[in-house]
Q: What sequence folds into this?
């Protein structure tokens, strides 16, 4: 139980990779706040799964691109559990639109959720963590923030937002140390949506592309989040770990 007695907040924690991260943290003993924006039922189901693991959980609605929602989310965590030890900034939105089709509205939506939301959550969580003089922040970026060809076609908005998360991680690691560690996980292809699984053709393409020869799973991403949250990474901060089967290193 590497995270026993700790409290974690996972944005976008009711579905997909966020759900897997929430369950993995709970499996290591953490009490978990599951944030969601509109999908209340999946979030509540994730809470039930966490309770079945023997831990405690709470589902809290909130749009992380809205400052008032962010403040309420962190405050709800503190009121319910008394502290906040781990923040996982997982919530985000993908866009693969090329520049000619990328509207200003879509650009703003992607930047607001993927980058502004991470900034707002880090700012609110850091206040509580600095007061207790300890904490871990894990930002979920992607291969699209590390290179222009991560095995799929990211839009300019998505790539810019995720690259921003990588640099935000580095700056905050310097600013918030030594009491708060800030690291980043750059996820690659992960078949994380049961209602929209990868097609056989997509699975074959990705498997051939990845040096490890397979498509990623939500658990692959979640296990790295547990590592970054735990004392196993206690001498790491400001780092970005690629979790993509090796695709990002290819020319």
A:
């Amino acid at each position: 139980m590497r995270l026993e007695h700790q409290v974690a907040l996972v944005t976008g924690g009711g579905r997909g990779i966020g759900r897997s991260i929430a369950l993995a943290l709970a499996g290591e003993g953490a009490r978990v706040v599951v944030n969601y924006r509109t999908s209340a039922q999946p979030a509540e189901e994730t809470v039930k799964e966490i309770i079945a693991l023997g831990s405690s959980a709470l589902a809290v609605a909130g749009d992380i691109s809205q400052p008032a929602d962010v403040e309420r989310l962190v405050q709800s965590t503190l009121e319910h559990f008394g502290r906040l030890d781990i923040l996982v900034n997982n919530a985000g939105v993908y866009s693969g639109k090329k520049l000619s089709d990328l509207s200003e509205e879509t650009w703003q939506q992607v930047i607001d959720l993927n980058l502004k939301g991470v900034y707002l959550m880090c700012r609110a969580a850091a206040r509580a963590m600095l007061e207790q003089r300890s904490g871990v922040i894990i930002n979920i970026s992607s291969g699209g923030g590390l290179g222009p060809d991560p095995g799929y076609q990211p839009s300019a908005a998505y790539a810019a937002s995720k690259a921003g998360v990588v640099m935000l991680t580095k700056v905050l690691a310097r600013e918030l140390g030594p009491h708060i560690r800030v690291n980043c996980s750059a996820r690659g292809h992960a078949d994380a949506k049961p209602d929209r699984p990868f097609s056989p053709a997509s699975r074959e393409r990705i498997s051939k592309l990845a040096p490890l020869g397979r498509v990623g799973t939500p658990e692959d991403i979640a296990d790295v989040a547990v590592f970054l949250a735990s004392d196993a990474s206690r001498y790491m901060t400001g780092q970005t770990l690629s979790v993509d089967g090796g695709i990002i290193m290819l020319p």
